[in-house]
Amino acid sequence: MDEIKLRREETPSDGRHRAGAQSPVAPQKHTAKTVGGFDPQRSLRVDVVVPCYNYAHLLQECVESVLSQVGVDVRVLILDDASPDDTQVVGMDLSHRDKRVIYRRHDVNRGHIATYNEGIDWAESDLFLLLSADDYLLPGALSRSAQLMLKQPSVGFVFGNAIISRPDGTTQSFDPIATNGIKDVMVYSGSEFIRLSGATNIVPTPTAVIRTELQKHVGGYLKELPHAGDMEMWLRLASHADVGFINEDQAVYRRHDANMSLKYCMDDILPDLRQRRKAIEMLFQQAASNVRKDDALRHFLFGELGKEAIGQASAAFNRRDIAAADAIQRFALEVYPEGRNSAPWVNLALKQLVGPRLWSFLNSTFGRSVD
């Protein structure tokens, strides 16, 4: 899914970072405390499920990045979703060369949600990672995650920084929580993490290592959320457990034209906003009982989504896409009625009063001073 990277680049900034804007909340009870049970005298076992569709040319690098991890016992479970390319040849060759690799192929394409959930059902080791075949791990990633979980039994899943790799060979560091000045390792209560995330996905999926027992306890990805399933999953897991963060580059995410979430979000921001609204709604059906009953948290999450929508409506108006601006503004009002009293809403209303042509002239003439 990996919707996190695009979303954070396209969301208009309001000049603050969410991590510094939220006050701490009290820790909660965590199911993860009852599902630890790791023996510190042995290496933790990690099942890395690799869903693959048409990534034969990248599959070997992905798998080898897992097999080369030290300090953990790894098993790679390749799930080929009926790829029409050479994925079967590459997958079978990898499994023949290393007994830690198991290859399974679908007769017909089942889609990514069903494939992810099959991987969850298949996993049986201490820890679990869903790693797309077009991404790969960096050295030490799994050991760092495993060590944090050994030391912190309340932590249900761990994530870290990532590197975005583009087709032109350039790279960009992705620091999901603006970690300047923070410790190498952080542990957030589930409630802290949910408020830190707000109405977006801050977890680079290839870095997210989960306790397998907890993953099975909370269940799989939801078919209703084909484009915001990751976001809802991290929030759902956080409703049951603490969340660990490692301030290290843990994995490489490849950005390219075949990225499903990239193509989805580039078409129109409104479907993306609607998917995230659905994700929040589903969270309060799927989460632990303490979160399901937390009306203040529900209001906070919808407020964050509404604030972003107002910013996106304003950006659409600046592009003179008036129809999109109006539609996004209506959406913002649905999820965040109080937003009509906010400064960004008043600013958008002034733009609409002036009109797109005059506003475009003022904006081009004076730039940010009128934006």
Could you write a compact summary of the structure shown?
The chain has 371 residues and is an alpha/beta fold. It has 16 helices and 10 strands.
Q: What does this protein structure show overall?
A:
The chain is an alpha/beta fold and 371 residues long. It has two domains: 3-265, Spore Coat Polysaccharide Biosynthesis Protein SpsA, Chain A; 294-369, no CATH class. Helices cover 47% and strands 17% of the residues. Strands 1, 2, 3, 4, 5, 6, 7, 8, 9 and 10 form a ten-stranded mixed β-sheet that branches. It starts with a helix and ends in a 5-residue tail after the last helix.
List its traits.
about 375 residues, alpha/beta, Spore Coat Polysaccharide Biosynthesis Protein SpsA, Chain A, 2 domains, 10-stranded mixed sheet, about 15% strand
Shape: globular
Radius of gyration: 21 Å
Average of pLDDT: 87
Helix count equals: 16
CATH superfamily of the largest domain: Spore Coat Polysaccharide Biosynthesis Protein SpsA, Chain A
CATH architecture of the largest domain: Alpha-Beta Complex
- In the CATH hierarchy, the third-tier topology of the largest domain is known as Spore Coat Polysaccharide Biosynthesis Protein SpsA, Chain A
Percentage of residues assigned to helices: 40-55%
**Count of the domains:** 2
* Amino-to-carboxy terminus distance: 33 Å
What is the name of the CATH class of the largest domain?
Alpha Beta
- What percent strand? 15-25%
In total, how many beta strands? 10
Largest sheet: 10 strands, mixed
The parts where pLDDT drops under 50 for at least 5 residues are 1-36, 262-266
Helix/strand-derived category reads alpha/beta
The helix/strand order is HHEHEHEHEEHEEEHEHHEHHHHHHH
